[in-house]
Structure formats: C-alpha cells, structure tokens
Batch of 4 targets.
Target 1
Amino acid sequence: MKFVYSAIFTSLLLTACQPNSSGSKTTSSSLPSYCADAASQTITSQSIVNLVAEGFVFLEGPVWIESLNSFFFSEMDFNGPQDNGPRSVIHRLTLPAQINVFIDNAGSNGLATDGKDLLATTHDDQGLTRYSLPNKDRTEVLDNYQGKQFNSPNDLAISARGDIYFSDPDWQLGGRENQTGMTGVYHFNVKGDVALVDGSLRKPNGVTLSADQHYLYVGDVDGKIGRYPINTNGSTGQREAFAEVEGPDGMGMDCAGNLYATSHAAGQLHVISPQGLTLALIDIAPQLTNIAFGGPEHKTILLTAGGKLFSIDSPIAGLPY
C-alpha cells in the first residue's frame, strides 16, 4: 500500500516527557507532569488541520506511547470477509513521519496504553488484548462477561490505577451471535473482576476518562454523550447527560478537562468544556473516528478519518488516547 505524507507533519520533534515509576500517566489527585503548565485556551474553529497521510482503508484507535516516541493506530479492512469482523493491522507512526506495520492481522479497533504495553479492543477474538511492546507477543486479557462472549469491543480507556473501561457495541460482530443480549459498557478492574457499567445503550462507542479521573465519558449512537462518576474503588455511578454530538465516535481529553468528541457522521471535531459547553467545532473529514494527543509536549492532536490521518497543533496538552 502506498502512503502519501504531508510535509507539514515532518517538523514534529520528540517529546522528553516520561511515565512515572509505576507506568501510570495520571492519578486521581494529580495530573501528568506535561499538564503542569497547561494553557487555558484550546484549539479553535479556525485551527489549521494538517493532512499527515492517506491511502489507508479505514482507520481507528490512535494512541501515543512515550517510550517509543510514536503514535499507533488501527487500520480495518472492510473489503474482505467479515464473519469474524474485518482484518485489522496496527501501524506505527514514528516521528517525524514514518509509518510502518507494527502488528499484522491484529484484529484491533481502539488502542490504549498502561505505560508499559499496548492494549487493544479486538473484534477477532471479541475481547481485550495485550500486546507486548518489546516482542509484540499477544495475550488475551478478557473475552466474556458472566461466561457470555462479548460482541465486538470497540474503544477503551485505562485509569492510573490500571482499571480498564470499554465499550462493546456490535459493529464488528459479523455472523456471530450476540451472547450478552445487549451492547454494553464494562469496567474491568485490577483484581480481574468485570462489572457492567451500562447495558441500556443502543450502540456505545467512544470512551474516555476526565483528566482528574473523576468521570467516565461514553458516547452512544443516538447522539448522546453521557458521563458516569467514578468512585474511589474504580466503580461507576449513574449516567448523567453531558452533551449531544451527531454520531459520536472516539473521544479525547486535554489537561484542562475539555472533552474532544469526534462526529463520525458530520466529520467534525467538537471541543466541549467540563460544563458541557461547546468551545470549538472543527471540520476535519468524512468518517472521523478518533483522536489522541501526543508528540512534543503532548500538544499534537492526531485524528483518524476514513482512510486518512490528520493532525492539529494544540496550545494545550492532552492525554495519549
């Protein structure tokens, strides 16, 4: 496959920010070190959107990994067999602008990191998967709730304590049975227990945590983004209405607690304050799927949209997935 690169992106430099000794990026009581001097302003509706690369099939799930100074993202192929979901590849974008296949036939959608390895929602085995960064070994983390296979896990977020929150719609279910009888949102804690956060949503999609990790945000296909208060033990409270976005997909978070929600249907990026107010609305491209902060000082926003990658230079730093 041939990729076409934008020269604008080649000016990116390597970031010096490192994880803390536990491998976590945040704690519930403090923000990451790169948030220390966070600006109060965000990107605006006039921000310049740069084309990074094109020529892919369908992109999803970007994540920034400090130790490798690279973004990673999934590419799904909807042109082939779909019985077990589309074939998927994980690509690595090494700064300044080199893209290589990192893991072939990964079966992945959303990606995240715990500061040590690459974590993925994987539709081929209908679960959560850990990929070792040094040797790319694949380990199944979780594939069922109360003995019933998940549908096609889509997106995930990892807390500082190591808890994983993820959505399980049925977009990539293919010809397989929906064993759970719902499309749910789940909490998988560090003890290995899995709990249902919400089983009432039509097709939950993007998930992210607030910068202070007090809330879990989840978007649904009906256009509503809700948030769940997170208790000190990682469990969640009742869903609260937060914002509405046409066809919400993946989401991101900046250091000031502003939510970045992608509208798949409209191809727009919404920047929403912690109070639910729209701060900016930016046209990106059709089939806008997801967002992650990374690069120098965590101020490069990488966006996946259909077969294209885009970037925006941000005045404020943000979280890596």
Target 2
Amino acid sequence: MKTSGDRLKALLHECGLTPSDFAAQRRVTPQHVNNWFRRGIPLTRLDEIADLFCVHRRWLRCGEGPKHPSSILRVDASQPEPVSTRSLSKHDGRQLQVPFHEVREGRLAPLDGHCLRLPTQALKALGVAPGNAISLAMPASNMSPWIPREAILAIDLSQTRVFDGETYALLHNGILRVHSLSRGHNDTLCLHSNDRHNYPVERFTRAQRHDQRLEILGWVFHWSHYRHRRPG
C-alpha cells in the first residue's frame, strides 16, 4: 500500500464497505472517493478519516508508525474480556466490526452489510464486550458542535446506569435521541444538550418515563464524523 488512497481502499475492504456506500454515508460523490483512491486523501480530510477508522493520521498519510491507537493503550491482561450472549459484532482478534443499526417501528434493527471497525483492545480497555457494541447515526443537532448531526456513534448496550455528565442513546416514544444525562431529585432523569440555547434541559419523573416509553439504550463511548464541506 504505497499511497493514502491505497490505505483508504484497504480500510473500506476491512469494514465491508463499498466505495459507493462510503460515498453515500459521507455525503460525497463516488467520483470523489475514486479520486482519493488515485490521488491520495486530501490533507483536509486526513484527520476526519483517521478518526472514523480509528487509525493514526501519520500511518494513513504516509504508511509510517503504528496503524491503530490501541498500540498505546494500557490494557490489564489479567482481566478477561466480558462474555455476552448477544452475537451482534464480529472480530478477527485485533479489529471489531461494530454493526450499524437504525430505529424501525420503535425498535433497533441492523443494517445488513454496514459496520464500523474499531480496535478490539480499545473496547477491552473500556470494558465493552463485543456482543454489546453497536453503531448508530446521530439523529439530531442538539449535541452540536460537540457531536454533529449524523456523526457515527458507537454504543455499549450493557451500560445503562446513569453517570452524571455521560452521554447516552435513548428511545423516547420510539424515537432515537442522544443526550448527556443526570439524576435530579426524586429520581428525576434530566436530559441535557450541548446546544443549550436551542435545546433546554428536559426533566422526566419515573411515571413520565414509563408513560412516554423513555428507555436508555446504552452509553456512547465513541463518535466520528466528516466535515460537510471544504474550507473556502
């Protein structure tokens, strides 16, 4: 793999993504992606693509140094990887294919053939079992600019306990939402947005959560996105 375009093509193959699927997800034309294959990834896109595939920018740009950030993570080898009964994700030892999901008729449903590839050691360091990891598209702009709309999120379905200030995916009357959460008085659940001007804090009692089918799906432990346009 001599060029960054070659490395991008290999990353798409590892993730099981076709160039046309990748172009559609990133809101560019297939010709843009073909140009990147031939001429190399534009410098203005390197950080975004490196974040998306969890690889080092230097490796993606020139093929030097370690490929994955997981090589610098401290992992406690004495702690076994959690075992889950869910068989949602596949991995080859170093890389985990985290399947894309969407909400259909108020329930999570997989998108066949689409996945986000993440370093297995990174998930182990966070205590995320492979069978509990899924990916979703950010559904709204309430967390912008911290998490832009349509950013790709990785969710740990097993972590539904609320830790103040952490970000979670939720279902609210069958609609996907993403918020930072906190607990208020009398077990009130508070939903916070990063864009506080346009999205005020919402508070739900236990009874209201039950009546409105407000359910915590899991903890958001990773996100990545592209800029929508080039500067200038």
Target 3
Amino acid sequence: MSAGDVAAARRLFAASAYTRLGKVLPLLLAAAARSAEQGPAVAARAACVWVLASQLAVKQGHTGPAGAYAEKAAAAARRSGDPVVLAAAARAAATPLRRTGRTNEALLLLAEGRAHLLAGTHPAAAELQAAGMTALTAAYTAAQAHRSALARDFVAQAEENTLRLARHPHTASRPRELTADQCALYGIGIHRHLGDIDTALAHARRLRPAHLPTAERRARAATDTARALIDASDAAGAFAQLHLVELAAPLEARRPSVRALTAQVAELRPDLPGLSDYAQRTAVSLI
C-alpha cells in the first residue's frame, strides 16, 4: 500500500466518487490490516485508509461500521505518532460517537487532538489547518448537543486558526481545506442545530461554494443550506439547493439522508415543477 494509493483514494472521496471508492477500498483495507504495525509511516497510511472507510460508511448511513473503522484508525494513528493523523482519526470518530449518544467522548477526543496539534510554539501550516478543521468538527458536535457556548468557543478557535493559516505561504495546486468559506459552511449547520435559522442562512449567503476545495464540500454546503431552508419553511428554496447537490456530486443526491430531504420537500410542496422527476432520478442509492 503506497502513499500514492492512499492519495488516489482520498481524491475519489473528495470527488464524491463513492462507487469507485467502494471498489478500491477492500484491497486498501486488507493492506492496512497487514501492514499497520510495520512502522510509523505505514501506520499513518493505514490510519488514513480506515478514516476513509469510516467516512464512506457515514455517507452510506452505516453508523456501526463507521465507528468500527474509526477505532482502527485511532489505533493506527497512535502508532504513527503524527498529530495530524491523530486529529483526522478523532474527526472520523466524532460522527459515529455523536450519532450513538456519546457526544462527551467525541468532544474529548477532538479537544485532545487539537491540543496535540498546537503543542509546539510555532505550529506548521498542516497543523494549523488540522487544528481548525478539528475545532469546526467539535463546534458542530457541541451544537448538535445544544451546547451553545461551547460551540461558539470552538468556532472562534477555528476562525483564529484560519487567520493564522492565511499568513502561511501555500501551493496553489493544493487548495486549502481550512478557509473562511469552510467556516461559513460549518456555520450553517452549527447555527441550525442551535435553533438560529436566520444566522444559519446568513452564513449560507456569505458562503462562496465555488471557493470550496472539493465536490464533496460543495454538495455538503448545498445539503446544509437545504436543511436550513426546510426549517424556514422555504421548500422551493430547499429544492433549488437539492439541484445544486446533484450538480456538484450526483452520488451525494442519492445518499439516504439527502433522499430524506427530498421527501421532506415533497411533503411540503408536492406541486413543485420537476420535483417528481428529481425524486425518481435520485431514488436508488448508488453507493
């Protein structure tokens, strides 16, 4: 299992090419299981494979497998000793943990991961980026538990990391994950979970989807905006966002949770032009 193999799998996830990723993952998972204890560098690659497997399981709505993969990722990440990999494993674990009512455990993992990243006097760009993304995940996790003050504190930490990261030089060929637009994307879901739909939609208006680094992120932005618009009883606006989900990443529109949004729109406004065709087109899961 080479670094190139892992990078290629990451690109498939970023492109929302979930069917193709599902075909290559079994070989990578087998290689990760065989090689995870061969040394820190190999353990880091194995952890990245298990993180991807956990993320794909989340996309498919399979919480149990997502948690099992995240546990394997965490064990390999600890063997790697790489704080960036440890943070990625913590972020992967957060979703299945919060979906199974273990929010405090998720928040503890995320806070510990962030602390490791910022332990040095002058964190590198990769560490700042990982710290900011970990803080955003923690903010979203806290918001889902309706812990407003904690969520806002993590958001402030992420925004600080974003400003610090912006002062570091970077290569244009590798777009940064942690940006003001990424913070705005998370802000939609965070404020929606906190019950502040007006602020959630303000974040949606501020967001520039074209500046997000991947198709998966652009689809996520449209999905979260659709959820906020449904909460605001704007079914037509939500349906427009679902079209953007499909435009950004067709397989995202076929995910179970996104198909559930389509059903909500249909319940609110069954008369919307094109809704029946959209629902039929996205009815069968392809991942």
Target 4
Amino acid sequence: MAQIIQPISPAAMDELAALRLELADTSTVEIAEELPRIDLEDQALRFRLLPKDRALAVFEELDTVHQQELLDGLKTEYVRDLLDSMEADDRAKLFDEMPAKVATRFQSQLSPSERRLTAQLLGYEPESAGRIMTPDYISLRASMTAAAAIERIRHVRERPRHLDVLPVTDGHRKLIGTVTLADLVTSGPDTPVGDLMTDEHFQVATDTDQEAAARLIQEANLNALAVVDHEDRLVGMITVDDAMEILEAEDTEDAVRAGGSEPLERPYLSAGVFMLARKRAVWLLVLAVSASLTVTVLSYYESYLANVTVLAVFVSLLTGTGGNSGSQASVTIIRAMAVGEVRFSDALKITWRESRVGFLLGAMLAIVGGPVVGFVYGPQIGLIIALTLLVICTWSTFVGSLLPLVAKKVGIDPALVSAPMVSTLCDATGLLIYFSLAALVLGPTLTG
C-alpha cells in the first residue's frame, strides 16, 4: 500500500518560516551552543532549515560528540553531502572519535578525492601534527609575480578555506618561505613573490606532537604552520583555529587533572553520572591509598601524642600548609612547562629558586604563627611550630617543583603528579618533619 504523505498545515508552515527567520538572526556560534541543549528531533529540524554553507559552519563548531548525535538524526543523503563538504582535518577528527564500523561506513560514502585526503590524515599517529593538519593548501613559486599568484588562487577548483598564509616552495615541494594574501593583494602586479615572502619560516614534521606544534603557532604569532614529511616536502598546513582548539583541550586536561580527576573527553552535559563517577573514582582511590602514609606516620608517633597532647592540635594546620605550598609550586611549574618556559635541564635552577621561595614563605608564617602559639601554649610549642613551618614550606615547594620535571623526563604527563598527589605526599613527609623537630626540642618530655 502506498504511504499517504500528510500535507503540511498553514500553521506549521508559518512556524517553520518564523523559525527560519529566528535562525537567520542568530549567530553561528550561538546556534552551535544552543543546538545540543534541545532534543535530537528538534536539532535535526533546525539544522535542515539552515542554508548549506551556514549549516556546515555550525556543524564544524560543534563538539565531535554532538556532531555524531546530530548525524544520527539526519537523512543519509544530507549526511553524505555534509561530510563531503567538511574540511579534511575536521572530518578526520570526527571519524577518529566514531566507532570504527560507523567511521568506515561514512568514509566509504565520500567522494574519491575527499576519501583519499581523510585516509591520509587518519594514517598519521594520533595526537601528531599530521593528524590535525589540513592537506588542502595552495603553494606558490618565488619566481611568480603577485598577479600570477592571485590568478592561480582564483582558478584553483577547490580553494582552501584558509588563505591568510600561502607557502612558497621550490621545484621539489620543499618550503622556502611564506607569503600573506594581504601582501599579494596590496603589492604591485609585477612584484615577484620572492620579494614578498618571509624567508624566516617555521615548519614541523608530521610526527611532531600536536601540542608542540600548537604552542609554536602561539609563541611565534603565526596564522598557519607548515607541516613536512620525512623528506622535508610540504604536505599540509596547521591553521591557528585548529591550534587554539588543541591548546584549549590540553589546558582543560591539565586543569582537570590538577583537580584530581580524569578528563571527560566530551562536553559535561553529554556525560552520564556513571562516567563522571568513573573519571573521578580512580584518582580518589589513588589518593586514598597515598593518604594511608599519613595514617602510618601518625600511628608511629602515637606515643608522642599521648605524652604531649597539644601536638595533635596543630597536625591539620601543618599538613595543610605543607600540602598547599607544594601544590602552589607544582601548578606553577606545570604551567611553565606547558608553555615552554622551563624544561628538565633547568631542574637545578628551578628547585633552588622554589626552595628559597618556600623558605621565605615559611619564615613569614613562622614569624606570625610562632609567637602566637608560644603565648598560648608555651615557648617550646611555639618554637616547634615556627621551625616546622619554616622547614615544611621549604621542603614542600622543593618537592612540588621537582616532581613535575621528573615526571616529564620519564615520559609521564606532569599533570598526573599535580596538586592532589603532591599535597598527599607533603602531608606524610610534613608529619615526619613535625614530630622530628618536636623530639629535638622537647627531648625526654616527649619520649618519656
């Protein structure tokens, strides 16, 4: 039996027209932010009402998780056209996050040229520069005139979306410089490209870590960075917008780990309760096991606390101070490492500097806290607290500055030894310092 298609009522037509006008008055970024907040059926409806170019721009603004959800609500033909129109690097990123079977099915539906470009990018190692570069670029020759270069750009059948910076290559596809589109347009038509290009250029290999490539773009104030293969032949460009996304993801990962959790790898509202708990549970377990060191130290010095009970009053104060000062140092060094300001070869200089910082902090706290405690609990207790604050702050800042450097050296993400881990370690060692100084000052009173 033939399916009867119900005609759209005039009221529904008016609603669609009003919705289309509303979308036209809303920016691309705002649509991309609001789209994931509505149900999938309404997402697909609104998305199909967008003009093709606008729909593509909105789609590329979405996180990969929301892109996959939206694709599930669209018709196959629409999906095929949408994926074929995407930038190759954005498409590769999307496929990389999909289940393998789904990605293979979508990839097989692409046009031969786009399928080849996508396969090329997916062939590089994850988190490498080759994985995030765009293989669509227009290269120029130094011998070209500005007019000839502009004419070449104008007649390229599929122009890249980013043309701010154009690579200049020799006859063997080796990069010899770059030229900006602005310089080409504003110069005389007969000016050679070689006179306009920047001789000092930057490039990275396809296997360079993507964060290192993104940091280079940021530090050198580049709009695009050339990517070359192992024979120094130009194979693609990394654009500044992709670099900023990489840096945002890396900074988010470091911030989350500094708070004692694992990155969600998806937007917060798209993560279920079980996933949120799972990402935090591992760290809680590790920190709980680490905290058992503190319990062990307290058990060992139980007789000290029994003889001089006032010492128990300051345990949390001292361990908290040590943990906080160590955390401050570790976060400072992790951030400095992330932006390329320090490296392992600077370890001696860093630890010496941070130890002095810790000594000054401890001295300030000791000057303030020692007399107050001495006035209330006696001069000996005041001296113990003052000395402990001085030593514990010096030690904790030393540990907090050294651990991230050592972790990086042995191939561990420095964020894994971030604030919570440093704080827990400093708690246990801080107690050892505290009771050792107490035994030194009180002597027989404490051990008798």
